[in-house]
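It is worth pausing here to work through a concrete case rather than discussing structure prediction in the abstract. The textbook approach is simple: state the sequence, then state the predicted structure, then interpret. We follow exactly that order.
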Amino acid sequence: MEIEITRPDDMHLHLRDGAALEAVVGFTARQFGRAVIMPNLKPPVVNTEDAESYYQRIMNAIPEGHSFEPLMTLYLRDNTTPDEIQRAADSGIVKACKLYPLGATTNSDLGVSNINAIDDVLASMAACGLPLLLHGEVTSSEVDIFHREAVFVQTVLPQLLYRHPFLKIVLEHISTKAAADFVRSAPSNVAATITAHHLLDNRNALFKGGIRPHYYCLPILKTERDRLSLIEAATSGNPKFFLGTDSAPHSVGAKQSACGCAGAFTAYDAIGLYAQVFDEAGQIERLNDFASRFGAEFYELPQNEDRIRIVKSPHTVPECFPYEDTKIVPYRAGEEVLWRFVESQYTV
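Step two, the predicted structure:
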């Protein structure tokens, strides 16, 4: 069995920088036409000049023969200004701004300490048409890690929408039924990305046969009830939900350590992983809209003009790939997956 879809877009991607960037960007460029690039480098991408420089480094690292456009973002900080938002919007390459609650995830130690303190920045984003990309978790120590997203959508997000009713918001990498339900009932300016790993696994995968660091991500995997709710949302044909891998590469040493980093590396064949989810749900015909149409429409971008093929061909995921001077272990390494991307590129 095989299907053909419009070349998709990844609306949430980590590419890192330097040798790490060069090791992973080709995986995405061969499958996707565009990707929204996360700004949490060290140091982060905090202004338009940073974004332009990072954009050029990405373009220089794309393997020859691939047509791929990075969609840049700014890392919001407490001292971000409305003037910087206007410069970003005018640049043509910055398509959104990312809000990391302070301490929420990888390289978020410079994130926003109080979302209420950047109201002028958010108002400027709404006026400029730049979407706000949210890592939607509270970081209070008294809130259980498995409940952080649900508490965020119950407390922080309603207030944010009340203060900024015209701001376009993407709740990224949703992991709970609570988040899916909120987005579904919210106004049309609110959408969400969903990862392949949150669709394929629940939190049991973290502990199957021992602690499995390559399944550790943030937001952390949730219950089976949550997973099934995410599948229902992704395969529903609702344009509020679209593809965002949150593929987050880390070296094997950074993952398999006493304080392992959060992130699942799915970029090696992300569209194949999504195809497996949609096929198992009996909704493979809806993959094109989820992967290639809804995200582009929300960001007011044209759909890509070329198409790709994906085949149902059971195969074993490689144990590792080269990464900097070491290796990276992909999500589901050594396990069988059912679909794979077929290298092809042609105009409709």
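Step three, interpretation. Residues 148-163 form the longest helix (16 residues). The chain has a mean pLDDT of 95.
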